[in-house]
Specification:
single chain, 196 residues, alpha/beta, seven-stranded parallel beta sheet, 6 helices
Length: 196
């Protein structure tokens, strides 16, 4: 279920990406802008609650309306990765005890997921979500049936698609790769509204 009481929300969008992204980087600014657009359109933004891309996404939503910014933390790393300041505590924050529960809590009930460049954690979340969608196991984590997956920044994500092709694998058809936050928002908003 949605962490906060937001009955007017259009849906929940999970935003993923590197916790090491600095506030001055283009990707940080992009994630913040995406979340501002989404929050203004009525969506709730949910992240892992940490720094970098997570902070950017929470900040964009929080500045529109604090109730539209949610975070899911991980207790074993809370000392080095505390919740960012753009989550209304405690109502919009959930602390979990392991990675599996955290991933499931972030995915639960989302209508879309946006992936920014990241490292092993981001890839883990990406492939986990893609497998659930491909195998039509939405109900196992409370995922909406027509969940939209968008990856932002072609320079990072297209090589992953090329790698799949080079080794004879199919890149997931459920994933759309774009260059800008505006494209990501438009795709999600159009697809979510089309399915309503």
């Amino acid at each position: 279920p949605i962490l906060s009481d937001t009955p007017t929300s259009t849906g929940v969008i999970a935003v993923y990406g590197s916790r090491r992204t600095a506030q001055t980087e283009r990707r940080y600014i992009s994630a913040k802008t995406f979340s501002t657009l989404a929050a203004r359109a009525g969506y709730v933004i949910r992240t892992g609650g940490g720094s970098g891309i997570m902070e950017a996404a929470n900040a964009g939503a929080y500045e529109v309306d604090p109730t539209r910014s949610e975070g899911v933390g991980l207790l074993p790393i809370a000392d080095k990765e505390p919740p960012n300041r753009f989550i209304a505590m405690p109502s919009n924050f959930l602390m979990t005890t392991n990675f599996s529960d955290r991933k499931n809590a972030i995915m639960c009930g989302i209508c879309a997921a946006v992936f920014y460049p990241g490292s092993t954690g981001t890839f883990d979340e990406f492939f986990d979500l893609v497998d659930i969608v491909k195998c039509k196991l939405h109900a196992t984590v409370g995922l909406t049936l027509n969940c939209v997956i968008v990856c932002v920044d072609k320079s990072f994500w297209v090589p992953l698609r090329v790698f799949h092709q080079r080794v004879g694998l199919l890149f997931p058809e459920c994933v759309t790769i774009v260059d800008t936050e505006y494209e990501a928002f438009q795709i999600i908003h159009n697809m979510v509204n089309h399915d309503v």
